[in-house]
Task: structure prediction
Amino acid sequence: MKYFRKVLLLLFLFALPYHLVAQVSQQDQHSIRSAREATNMISCEDYSSIKYNGYTNGELDATKGDSSKIKQLWGDYTSVDVDKIIGEYDYFYGENRFTFYDSTLTSLSIKESDWAVTVLGKKINVGDTLSELKKKFGKDLKIQYNYGYDVSFSCDMIDSESFSIDLDLDTNKVVEITYVIFT
Result:
């Protein structure tokens, strides 16, 4: 079932850019681009320095999904889902989820406002508004429409990963921050 979800997610992410339709205010229309054009490019050094509640994805990956090492970072997790057949471990801290497949970090999802993500030295939290993001990253912040607003960051050398900040269309607030490695 988890494998099926990943396949669907990949299909969705690759097919969606070709079917984007935006209904936004005139002020934001200039910022809306197709998924390929709407990525905020940063240096690979800055990209690898993105921190999730204080730790980079490299530091998280270094735990190899070992529960004792993960506990050293953030303390006791709420729960863990283990699928030993495919070697997948989902660690939950409330609504925040970290997935390891075959001892490699493959995705994370932050849905709680008390876990900050730091990009280019600027803290982002679930609940931040689109206006706050524009103040932090400048008026030229690239935004795309995917059943809600999406702000993504990447670097030139990485095409197998996705980092995005998802915003609700109605409230213009961050609802989820995700990082996915396409394996």
